[in-house]
Amino acid sequence: MSSLNAPSSATVHLLRHGQVHNPDRIVYGRLPDFHLSDLGHQMAEVAGQALAQRREQGAKLVYLAASPLTRTLETAAPVSRELELEIHPDERLIEPKNHFEGLHVNGSQLARVAHWPYMVNPLRPSWGETYRSQVARMAEVVVEAARRAVEIGGDGAEAVLVSHQLPIWMARRSAEGKFLPHDPRARQCNLASLTSMVFDDVHAGLPPRVVYSEPAAHLYPGINQLPGS
Questions:
Q1: What's the rounded Cα separation, in Å, for the pair 49 and 47?
Q2: What's the CA gap between 169 and 181, in Å, rounded?
Q3: What is the mean pLDDT of the segment spanning 45-53?
Q4: From what superkingdom does this record's organism come (predicted)?
């Protein structure tokens, strides 16, 4: 087989942002100026160090992109510094739209008649961007990043995309051939975690294998997370 036709492998690491300062526990969605907490910055530093260690062990980490929201750009900053890579903001990595954005969602909020039309179909879901839409944009950006990494670093090159829990979880469920509707409490996509998409051939059109890791797990005890935050 000629080198022109040889398979080109690549890995795309989907990094979830660190903990956000959100004392009122609202659904912040795409709202601006929601910054990482002090602990969230620590998580981002740990993730950056874990990726730098991976590079020291021989990985070719050559491309970095992030959702344009504050919390993802702040998470990407130490990764950029550790790997000496420019951050490429990409709207396709952004948090989904959500009708409940800006609200602390509790029983009294959900009882308001004005919200009922947005809760009629949790399988879609009816309160925001559909699961299928999220899968489509995430699949596009992941495959593009994998191919871009190979263009820059050759066979086996790797990229890092900093995004949010739900889009990452949708990308994973799609790659694993699972139903998109799910219980938010069962998502395996913790703060500053890495959901790594491993492509044996970026041009074959086959779904990647998924490897999950939590470099900041030692910082989790005592954290009360909002599903999807």
A1: 5
A2: 11
A3: 98
A4: Bacteria
